Amino acid sequence: MKLRGLYAITDGPLLAGKFLSYVEAALEGGVTLLQYRDKSSDEARRLREAEALRDLCERYKSQLIINDDAELAARLNVGVHLGQTDGPLSPTRALLGSKAIIGSTCHAQLELAEQAAKEGASYVAFGRFFNSNTKPGAPSCSLDLLDEAKRTLHLPICAIGGITLDNAAPLVAHGVDLLAVVHGLFGADSTAEVTRRARAFNELLKV
Ligand SMILES: Cc1ncc(COP(=O)(O)OP(=O)(O)O)c(N)n1
Ligand SMILES: Cc1ncsc1CCOP(=O)(O)O
Ligand SMILES: [Mg+2]
């Protein structure tokens, strides 16, 4: 199955007090991948939250991806997203098995994506494309790189960084398969608005 659609990413501070209700609202609108991104070191809470997300994803036929933490992903039998300093890809592929979804951060560098493809990545992520509240310091990436990536890579392409309903269309026009979004999805005033946004992202991607 080709990975295509909305890639919702959680954020602890943004979702404080409404974590599961907002995630469920997004799933209601359609989420292809859901990433649990939590930078805290509270292992017990991380396990609890990740288990709750895995159960929700099962109900909504979405796929859970754990950010940074291959061990937690292995424990829950779900996918993982690895940045350039989050550990090597090949051993993670061996740990999680051939069917697991493994994503790789490639910033704005095609060479990183080619390497990730060789090492067994399931998708490659480029960005940030726009100003990001969640990660303002992330290196920026241009639409031109997407054209080149589309020509040379044979993997689903994910875009991340400051993506909203108002700026996502050019990314899709340049061949992006997965739109990875934090604020543009969860920075909403109500669960109804989260669901509406999720549906609208899917319409943009025609999924
Ligand atoms: C889909 C997706 N793309 C990129 C990232 C960024 O990963 P990384 O560079 O490891 O930074 P952190 O998210 O860990 O701060 C991502 N998480 N997801
Ligand atoms: C994790 C990450 N990596 C590059 S930008 C980013 C944050 C994405 O969040 P937002 O959609 O709020 O900009
Ligand atoms: Mg990381």
Automatic annotation (TrEMBL):
Its EC number is 2.5.1.3. It holds the Pfam family TMP-TENI. Residues 6-184 form the Thiamine phosphate synthase/TenI domain. Keywords: Magnesium, Metal-binding, Thiamine biosynthesis, Transferase. The keyword Oxidoreductase does not apply. 4-amino-2-methyl-5-(diphosphooxymethyl)pyrimidine binds at residues 35-39, 67, 105, 135. The keyword Metal-binding applies. Mg(2+) binds at residues 68, 86. Binds 1 Mg(2+) ion per subunit. GO terms for molecular function: thiamine-phosphate diphosphorylase activity. Coiled coil: none annotated. Condenses 4-methyl-5-(beta-hydroxyethyl)thiazole monophosphate (THZ-P) and 2-methyl-4-amino-5-hydroxymethyl pyrimidine pyrophosphate (HMP-PP) to form thiamine monophosphate (TMP). Belongs to the thiamine-phosphate synthase family. This is Thiamine-phosphate synthase. It comes from Pseudomonas fitomaticsae.
